[in-house]
Specification:
By secondary structure, chain A is mainly alpha-helical. In chain A, about 75% of the residues lie in helices and about 0% in strands. Chain B has ten helices and 28 strands. The chains are: A mainly alpha, B alpha+beta.
Chain lengths: ~190, ~500
């Protein structure tokens, strides 16, 4: 079933929409959730929540790219769960490592509180992503959006771990430099 | 920035939907989850492709960067073309007919099949070793193309008429035999010179030699006549554009360029514990241990390459010197800081010899060490090319018959891996081991990078008397060949375990 057909089911309030969504995107959403939460059961619950959110939000939402829409829902909810989680639970998943990586991307002198909108930085990052070669962008998204581990990224892309690390490093460095240049370093 | 702030920020990270889709689209298909960027989805460690094996030896041994060069579509090169080459020494009209005849006879004598085929002889003169005198180039051709298996043979007239065989361009591999070629410094510039060898991609026949100069500082190729893509392996820097699609070379011609590089000048004492004088002393010693070298080989810059590593774990840095000809690695010699010879790696198999072995037993177990390289494999045209990405030193535990995947030393050249061929900018990140280093540091360490050149798959030490080391080479995805290297088991048995 195509994305537009699935969305049409949502629009018609046809519950098959959920089943079709799960069939098409359940595994992939679960992967994102698992990356963040580090727990299969919680990841499953997260996917269920994602499906519920999709059901609640479509319509009025009419996602252009359903996969991206669901990925974002899953990610957001998983991060919310992670934030709510206990200290012990927070040790699971890739979040700590990804945060470490992410920290290297942001200019060290950046003071988030002094920047009116986080979104400015994010928008700037997005703009910069446009300019990157696809492989760099893919590694970036897998790491910082999907919270995937380096070995998983390497496996997925058919690259060596070292190459992924280097690509990631290079991308972070470039973005950081770009953010510096754009005045996000105070 | 605090973790909480970072968490906020990464939570806010709203990557464009297009990028998400682009990234995860493969995830949605269970059967094809891999998006291959590396140009080779089947890379396995220590995989070396046969046609490139000799090239690797060149890369590894001579400090020469071998690069796949994609020339723009160009007319076949004729001897007349090369007469205007940068060396200024080529002439289509060859004097010394008798000498030429002798050269032809040598080539024909080595290749009886030539007599049975329709071919013509081409001859040229070129001062390939820059000694001020032209050498004689002889190359049989069919249909205007030089026969690949023979390449362009180079002979030197010595003592008024004696023939010295200086080797061949393009023989046995797509690399130029640079054994006898020295860097041209006659023009006083910083340019480095390359011999380029081009061949028709479809039939594999060579069609000429080009000669270009390369200005490293400006990163330019000065030869206006020859629009060749030059890859500086070190900087991953393509000077001119190529044409590849899906890692497949598109076009009918393909050229190769070999870079002649001297030992880096900027090695500092802080990085290299061995001084140049000490290295030279060790090189001289290594020379005496290899009687196969000819004078011309010794005169060839880049013939020697060395690297430093505490190979025996004693806390002191050893100097590893490699000496190569251009079809075979000639071993890696190991010296301590006192320039004392500690042992060597075997010539062709990458294994260290027993003399050195005892020094390796850091953990009480017997090991042989294996030097290997691995790199991406790119299909370009009809054949495969491998660049070295990593040099590794692996342990072979003789008693346990096991091969350690631990890489004691390695470093990667990281490529922009979506397409090796089309990058025009320098995107190289330099690594030594797990540490990213500056380009300067990389350059200093780079010489080690060229110290080995063999690939391997598996080994068999099960035979009680004889043991075999099986080298596996592939020359394509479809065919492969095995080369076995055997040794006597009793050599191993005589090895002494160390504390």
């Amino acid at each position: 079933m195509t994305d537009s057909e699935i969305i049409e089911l949502y629009n018609q309030r046809d519950e098959r929409a959920i089943r079709e969504t799960q069939t098409a995107y359940g595994r992939y959403c679960q992967k994102i959730a698992r990356n963040i939460l580090g727990d299969e059961q919680e990841a499953l619950e997260c996917v269920n929540e994602t499906l519920l959110k999709a059901w609640e939000n479509i319509p009025p939402d009419q996602p252009q790219i359903l996969s991206a829409y669901l990925a974002t829902l899953t990610r957001n909810y998983a991060l919310l769960c992670y934030r709510r989680g206990t200290a012990e639970k927070r040790g699971k998943g890739s979040v700590p490592l990804v945060l470490e990586d992410f920290a290297e991307l942001i200019p060290s002198s950046t003071n988030v509180e002094r920047i009116a909108e986080h979104r400015e930085i994010i928008a700037e990052i997005n703009r910069y992503l446009e300019t990157l070669p696809e492989v760099n962008r893919t590694v970036f998204v897998l790491r910082f959006f999907c919270f995937e581990s380096i070995p998983d990224i390497a496996n997925r892309l058919g690259l060596k771990k070292k190459a992924v690390s280097a690509t990631l490093y290079r991308t972070k460095k470039q973005i950081r430099k770009h953010l510096d240049k754009e005045g996000y370093s105070l | 920035m605090k973790n909480e702030e970072l968490f906020d920020l990464i939570t806010e990270l709203k990557v464009d939907d297009r990028f998400i889709e682009e990234t995860i689209s493969d995830d949605l298909d269970e059967k094809s989850p891999i998006k291959a960027y590396a140009g080779n989805t089947k890379r396995s460690p220590m995989r070396i492709i046969a046609p490139a094996a000799a090239c690797l030896a060149v890369i590894a041994g001579a400090g020469i960067v071998f690069a796949n060069v994609n020339g723009a579509k160009k007319a076949p090169v004729t001897p007349a073309d090369t007469s205007a080459s940068a060396s200024g020494g080529v002439s289509p009209a060859v004097s010394g007919e008798d000498f030429i005849e002798q050269c032809k006879n040598i080539v024909a004598g080595e290749n009886p099949l030539l007599a049975q085929s329709e071919m013509t002889w081409q001859t040229s003169r070129l001062d390939v070793d820059f000694d001020g005198e032209d050498e004689y180039l002889v190359y049989p051709q069919t249909d205007g193309k030089t026969v690949k298996d023979i390449g362009v043979r180079v002979f030197k007239k010595v003592n008024g008429g004696d023939i010295r065989d200086l080797g061949a361009f393009g023989k046995d591999s797509d690399c130029i035999d640079l054994n006898k070629i020295r860097k041209d410094e006659r023009d006083g510039s910083d340019n480095q010179y390359y011999y380029c060898f081009s061949h028709d991609d479809e039939d594999g026949l060579y069609d000429g030699i080009r000669f270009v100069s390369y200005n490293e500082e400006e990163n330019t190729v000065s030869d206006e006549k020859h629009l060749m893509r030059v890859t500086d392996h070190r900087t991953n820097n393509y000077l001119t554009e190529g044409s590849y699609e899906n890692d497949e070379y598109i076009g009918s011609e393909q050229s190769f360029i070999v870079r002649i590089r001297d030992f880096p000048d900027d090695i500092t004492e802080t990085f290299c514990e061995f001084t140049k004088a000490e290295i030279a002393k060790c090189e001289n010693d290594a020379l005496t241990r290899n009687g196969k070298l000819e004078l011309e080989e010794l005169l060839t810059p880049g013939m020697w390459h060395s690297g430093e590593y505490d190979i025996n774990g004693d806390g002191e840095t050893e100097l590893l010197i490699s000496l190569f000809n251009f079809s075979n690695m000639r071993g890696v010699f190991v010296y301590n800081k006192n320039c004392e010879y500690l042992g060597s790696f075997e010539t062709e198999n990458g294994l260290c010899d027993p003399e050195l072995l005892n020094l390796y037993d850091r953990d009480g177990e017997k090991y042989w060490y294996y030097l290997g390289v691995e790199g991406p494999t790119i299909r370009d045209g009809y054949r495969y090319t491998t660049w070295i990405e990593r040099v590794s030193l692996n342990k072979i535990n003789v008693e346990n018959n096991s091969f350690s995947t631990e890489r004691l030393i390695h470093y990667d050249v990281i490529w922009d891996s979506d397409d090796y061929h089309t990058h025009t900018k320098n995107h190289c990140v330099y690594w030594i081991g797990d540490k990213e280093v500056t380009e300067a540091e990389f350059r200093k360490a780079e010489h080690f990078y060229h110290t080995v050149g063999m690939g391997s798959h598996g080994f068999d030490l099960t035979d009680p008397i004889e043991w075999k080391y099986t080298m596996y080479f592939e020359d394509s995805e479809l065919t492969g060949s095995y080369k076995e290297w055997s040794g006597r088991r009793d050599i191993l048995n005589n090895l002494k375990p160390t504390d």
